[in-house]
Amino acid sequence: MSYLILCDSGADLTDELKAKEEVIKVPLSLMLGDEVFVDDENLDALDFLQKMKNYPDTPKSACPSPEDYLKHFEKADEVYIITISSKLSASYNSAKIAIDMYHEEKGKNKIYLIDSKGAAASQTLLANKIVELKNAGANYDETVKGVEELNAKKQTTFVLETLENLRKNGRLTGLKAFIAEALNIKPVMTTDKEGNIIKADQARGINKACALLADLTAKHAIETGSKALVISHCNCPERAEKIKAMLEEKHKFEKVDIVPTGGLATLYAAEGGIIIGC
Fold this sequence. Notes:
The protein is of the alpha/beta class. Helices cover 39% and strands 24% of the residues. It has helices at 15-18, 45-54, 66-70, 91-105, 121-135, 140-153, 164-168, 206-224, 237-250, 263-269; strands spanning 3-8, 23-26, 29-32, 35-38, 60-62, 78-83, 110-115, 156-159, 185-191, 197-204, 228-233, 255-260, 274-277. The strands form three sheets. The chain has a six-stranded mixed sheet with strand order 10-9-8-13-11-12. It has a four-stranded parallel sheet with strand order 2-1-6-7, sandwiched between helices. Strand 1, helix 1 (15-18) and strand 2 (23-26) form a beta-alpha-beta unit. Helix 5 runs antiparallel to helix 6. The longest helix is centred in the C-terminal third of the chain and has 19 residues, at 206-224. It starts with a strand and ends with a strand. The relative contact order is 0.17.
């Protein structure tokens, strides 16, 4: 049976995933005022980052339309859709509308929608799992079970140089005023079981925050028995490598991927941001 993995562009795909014809990125749109960027394979994320730095107002994003998902459903017998957390974007709802439209009109294919309850590296982790299961010969039901088990136990954790874009775009609803910029306090963030962003801990300075990020991730990996890790970085590959080294001292991973952020994660993480899916 043929299959497709549709990832909205919140996912930071590895080169391996990009090379697979079964993996398709469904792009969001990014806006700097009247200038619109399609977050697809043609977007230069570093160029976008620079333009964002020079933009004085709040950058915005818009989710794919239902048609952006719907047009791919006939391309395979099984379709797996991985979206950024439904608490952070309407991408999940857009995909759900597309599925409802398809089932009402045709409905012959098996389509499974996965709310990653995370973003970036966390979505990539799920895509890797589907490919792994399919390479092992898993059928549709086995694949759904395997990816849901991972989704239930995985964790998205991140450290950013600044939370300003998240705050301005309303992605930190309910967040208490714990950020002390003058004291150089860097929060370590995670997502709850519903996919909302919450604070896990905090440290003074980015280096201590990254060490704390590694500690929290390693603890989670040990508790869940995780052997796979994805690290997304926004224009800071050396920082990502250092965190990888710290993690590998604490826990044995079978697969570690380091990937640069795509457009959407770049918009919210900004330069220096690290996002881990484990």
